[in-house]
Amino acid sequence: MSARNDSCVFCDIAAGxxxxxxxxxxxxxxxxxxxxxxxxxxxxxxPRRHLQDVRxxxxxxxxALMATVxxxxxxxxxxxxxEGMSLWHSIGEAAFQEVPHLHxxxxxxxxxxxxxxVYPSAPATPGKRERDxxxxxxxxxxxxxxxxxxx
Length: 151
Ligand SMILES: [Zn+2]
Prior knowledge:
Layout: H1 9-15, E1 22-25, E2 29-33, E3 43-47, H2 59-79, E4 84-88, E5 104-109, H3 128-150
Antiparallel strand pairs: 1-2, 2-3, 3-5, 4-5
Bound molecules: zinc ion.
């Protein structure tokens, strides 16, 4: 995996070749004001390295990313009007990931603003037995992933 993708606008921002309104930067992480300001304060936080989504994060970059997300979320919440905030990360076109360079959105929210509608209709609410089966499948996958990491 390369550190930089030549056709990635967020890599250009990280490299400084595209000007952005920088909120924070250090050797691993950069935060900047999003072009779209549905509510003032919409900010993005991302690793400098070109990683497509959270699944490609190593633990130290992930910890640095989350620490910056926490600090910038406090700042957005303190500086810009809001009644709450949403954080989100989209993976893939089906989830409307627009730039394939991992980034976390921090967005001020107001009641009934319709910025994010999580469910287009009432979701299924399977019983505990089915949810337990989902958990078993995930635990098995996590255990196998740990084994794979060690080999
Ligand atoms: Zn990139």
